[in-house]
Design goal:
Length: about 280
Amino acid sequence: MSLVTLDSLLQKAKKEKYAVGAFNATDLNTARGIIAAAEETNSPVILQFAEVHEEFVPLDTIAPIYLDLAQKAKVPVCVHLDHGENFETIIKAIHLGFTSVMVDASTKPIAENTQMTREIVKIAKALNVSVESELGRMNKEDGTNTLDYNDMADTYTDPHEAKQFTAATNISALAVAFGTVHGLYAKKPNLNFERLKEIRDNTTVPLVMHGGSGLSDEEYRQAILNGVTKINYYSTMSFDVTNGIRDFLNNKKDAYLYDLDLQTIDLVKKNLIAKIKVFGSENQA
């Protein structure tokens, strides 16, 4: 129980064909809501902090808080650095006690991506820290409605490159691109499950789906059926919880700051319980 590696969570999920939810947080109350959802459903969980979120809170400030929550949790918790782009940040997360890190060099040529990932893996594995890496290019939805969801084939992960990349790097998990996007979808996504299946059939490592917000329950299930064992879900939760807080404030004129703390925890918990059940990790702790 408590603090575990990504590798230990995903190997079990891969074998038993479910996915573990990976949820980002930038504050204590969101993190508490994530742990509460996992405990109530008796589910393993991945508590994430993205490198780009350091503008909201420094990594070395939030790390001890997340690690303390994980160590005291009643379920297995992996504390994971999401989208680590800088070598220094990734190494810092490892030294701070994160049990998993993501190397995101997906915008670089595959040779550079491979080299950077291998360097991190060599360090991380020696310290029993798991490593996720990304191959393919994830688009980001910026709300302008200009992103063509039907024209993303050139961003998809190549199955044969995935086979070579995973063999060369010895990573614990591979984030793949097959039509999902970061952020809130402006229209119905177009997911290429056949491509995902090809990637699964050409690799042996657990697969990760980024851009997991806003999909239908059936799309989640299809992704899991075709090899996904880790689902990153953040934007929709963040948006829904914010609107929930707005509704709460509109109906409670005498609210205090601590009321918002409790509301945030509860709203995050309820939002994630529903997703954990769809992902199939309930009672898998």
